[in-house]
Write a structure and sequence with these properties.
- The protein is an alpha/beta fold and 678 residues long.
- It folds into 5 domains: 3-93, Ubiquitin-like (UB roll) (Roll); 103-183 and 514-560, Orthogonal Bundle (Fumarate Reductase Iron-sulfur Protein, Chain B, domain 2), CATH 1.10.1060.10; 194-288 and 437-498, FAD/NAD(P)-binding domain; 291-433, 3-Layer(bba) Sandwich (FAD/NAD(P)-binding domain); 598-676, Alpha-Beta Plaits (2-Layer Sandwich).
- Helix content is 30%, strand content 18%.
- It is built from 23 helices and 25 strands.
- The strands form 7 sheets. It has a 5-stranded mixed beta sheet with strand order 2-1-5-3-4, with helices on both faces.
- Helix 4 (114-122) runs antiparallel to helix 5 (126-133).
- The two termini are 46 Å apart.
């Protein structure tokens, strides 16, 4: 065989005369994206994604069908090549109804493959479910108990009856595997690089987990006596038993992560010294500073912050709140504070909220359970003054409100009803209207208008080299725990690249979204959502024991089987979406390219295969495999021009049987348009 040399991207690559540019590139470890190439088939060159630029050639060449010539100089990533590929992908995606991910996974702030772990639970494979979760989420048992589950808000099952109970399914599977010995994924070989993380909450622990898995040496420092952040010190025991949190933190630590507690930047070491001790630093210290109530009397004895009160209880202390407690706020922290006050022995506990119940940001289940436990809700009420006697809280003067026009968040703004007040006798007032980060010790960093750390939203870089910021301490401020977990994964991806000498911001993956036809949900039978068994209110208010009793295995499997299994079955192996995500596609540009689109329908004329016309990109591989490899020719391109479609044709029962036993066309499909039926 005659040897030839081709220079590709500056690298001299050896090959054999008669090979294509694509074959030589692949043999020399150079990736050229392609959709229509198959080693079993003749050279085709139909998708235009494998185009490359050859020195001295006025036109781009298709690498999969161009026979290489000795001495050629090839560039696979020139500006012209990338522009051409990107346009080709955008055109393909504009006529591709892929439904890559179900709305649950698309909405999960942590980016967890929700549909995959729910389907694993439906099949009774709880270990597989946890493996899927832990690709992105190292604290599934804890987050499964406290997450406000935005995934369920978008679950398509709600269009049939009720959303799948996704969070509680996560809770069940994670508990189950933890009881069976747990699961800790493998980690890469040591890189010799070091990362220092400030903050041992869900964000910091998650970043440590992902970076340790990548082989880096990670140290987490935390000001509190134990790791866990707000999961430990801001969420009551009855919602999240700390024994569960301890086990999950121990699993994270088992990856070789060093954890230092009661360590404070600015006291034990300066930020400059800490930063210089590591190759990269991530700031994830959360938002522990409460927002003021904003009315006269806040200085009185008996006025406290919700997160301070919850932290005291978590530390085993019993704050003096008296018998009559007013909690100001409408979020989950306010719910936690009022329910904790009940358990501390308060006789009357009020929630004071300036809007109506419909506008409350707290989870509905938290509101309902608070009412069951005896909390009294004072809606359309705002604190006007905290009145004291001998320096101690005595009364709370409330301004009666009414709803006006919507504000920037879309909620109707509360406005005072002139001259209308109410006096509430109280022994303590607990403010729970918001939190922000305490940036003491980090003054050298650039802060935003809110007075917290400014970090780029894609690269997570701060104003100092090698320092990254995530979670409540940055940008928009306090949010839910699962959002910090999501930022931790994305930041860890960027930091890993940074430690490997690459300066690339995290790229949000591109997804194809399916427009479901009218009447789509009519095919599904209604089925009741599983109800989490809970302790009775009169029993649970006596202590801080967990109130949720957990699903049984039968409940969990049955509930998971309610999942409609949205999203593409072939997402993990789809060549089209992998090609799309090599380049930063703009969804709005893809949408603008949409003109007339091919009809979207599914059919099973291939007997053992479901064919989805909406996913088909007319690459022709199924046709060519059936013809060139199998020798049957049972599938072909029908019609001409834009109306072209791929359709099967059976002449006899023997052909039907042969098709059902073959399945090679589905195995060759690069987009999931052909699905092998179980």
């Amino acid at each position: 065989m005659e040897k030839i040399n081709v220079t590709i991207n500056g690298k001299v690559c050896s090959g054999v005369k008669g090979q294509t540019l694509l074959q030589i590139a692949q043999e020399n470890g150079i990736h050229i994206p392609n959709l229509c190439h198959n080693d079993e088939l003749k050279h085709y060159g139909g998708c235009s994604l494998c185009v490359v630029e050859a020195e001295g050639s006025p036109k781009l060449l298709r690498a999969c069908s161009t026979i290489a010539a000795d001495g050629q100089v090839i560039n696979t990533e020139s500006e012209r090549v990338v522009r051409t590929r990107k346009t080709a992908i955008e055109l393909l995606m504009s006529d591709h109804e892929g439904d890559c991910r179900g709305p649950c996974a698309m909405t999960c702030p942590a980016g967890v493959n929700v549909q995959a772990y729910v389907q694993a639970i439906a099949a009774g494979d709880f270990l597989e479910a946890v493996k899927v979760m832990k690709q992105k989420l190292p604290l599934p048992a804890s987050i499964g108990r406290v997450c406000p589950h935005p995934c369920e808000t978008e679950c398509r099952r709600k269009n049939v009856d009720e959303a799948v109970s996704i969070a509680y399914l996560k809770h069940y599977a994670a508990d189950r595997i933890m009881a069976e010995g747990g699961y800790v994924p493998e980690k890469a070989a040591p890189t010799g690089k070091t990362v220092g993380i400030v903050g041992g909450g869900p964000g910091g622990l998650s970043a440590a987990y992902h970076l340790a898995r990548a082989g880096h040496k990670v140290t987490v420092v935390e000001t509190m006596p134990k790791m866990g952040g707000m999961l430990r010190y801001g969420i009551p025991e009855y919602r999240l038993p700390k024994s569960i949190l301890d086990k999950e933190i121990a699993e994270i630590a088992s990856l070789g992560i060093e954890m230092k507690n009661e360590f404070r930047i600015g006291r034990d070491v300066s930020f400059e010294e800490f930063k210089n001790s590591y190759d990269a630093v991530i700031l994830a210290f959360g938002a522990w500073k409460s927002m003021p109530i904003g009315c006269p009397g806040e200085e009185l004895d008996g006025v406290m912050c919700g997160i301070d009160m919850l932290r005291q209880v978590a530390l085993g202390e019993k704050p003096d709140i008296g018998d009559k407690v007013a909690v100001i706020g409408g979020g989950n922290t306010a719910m936690d504070a009022c329910r904790t006050a009940i358990r501390l022995g308060a006789k009357e506990v009020y929630i004071v909220y300036r809007r109506t119940e419909n506008e409350m940001p707290a989870e509905k289940i938290e509101i309902e359970e608070s009412k069951e436990e005896g909390v009294i809700f004072k809606f359309l009420s705002s604190p006007a003054e905290i009145i004291g006697e001998n320096g101690k809280v005595k009364e709370l003067k409330l301004q009666v409100m009414e709803l006006g026009e919507p504000d920037a968040s879309g909620r109707r703004s509360p406005v005072p009803v002139e001259g209308k007040f109410e006096i509430l006798p109280v022994t303590s007032v607990i403010g729970a209207i918001g939190q922000m980060a305490n940036v003491a010790g980090f003054e050298s960093l650039k802060l935003n208008k809110k007075g917290i750390i400014s970090a780029d939203e894609k690269s997570f870089r701060t104003s100092e080299e090698g320092v990254f910021g995530i979670g409540d301490a940055t940008n928009k401020g306090a949010s839910i725990a699962v959002s910090a977990v999501g930022e931790a994964y994305r930041c860890a991806t960027v930091v890993d690249m940074y430690l490997n000498g690459l300066d690339v911001p995290f790229q949000e993956p591109f997804f194809s979204v399916k427009q479901l036809p009218e009447g789509y949900y009519d095919q599904f039978e209604k089925e009741a959502r599983a109800v989490m068994p809970v302790r009775e209110p009169e029993d649970r208010i006596k202590d801080f024991e967990a109130i949720n009793l957990g699903f049984s295995e039968e409940q969990a499997v049955k509930e998971a089987q309610r999942c409609l299994d949205c999203g593409c079955h072939d997402y993990n192996d789809c060549k089209l979406i992998k090609c799309a995500n090599l380049y930063e596609l703009d969804p709005s540009k893809v949408n603008r390219m949409k003109g007339k689109v091919h009809p979207d329908y599914t059919e099973t004329r291939l007997v053992a295969i479901e064919r989805d016309q909406g996913k088909c990109i007319l690459c022709g591989q199924c046709v060519r495999v059936c013809d060139e490899v199998v020798g049957k020719g049972l599938i072909d391109l029908v019609s001409r021009g834009f109306e072209t479609a791929i359709k099967p044709e059976f002449n006899n029962s023997e052909a039907v049987k042969g098709c059902a036993d073959c399945l090679k066309c589905a195995q060759a499909c690069p987009t999931g348009a052909l699905k092998i039926l179980k």
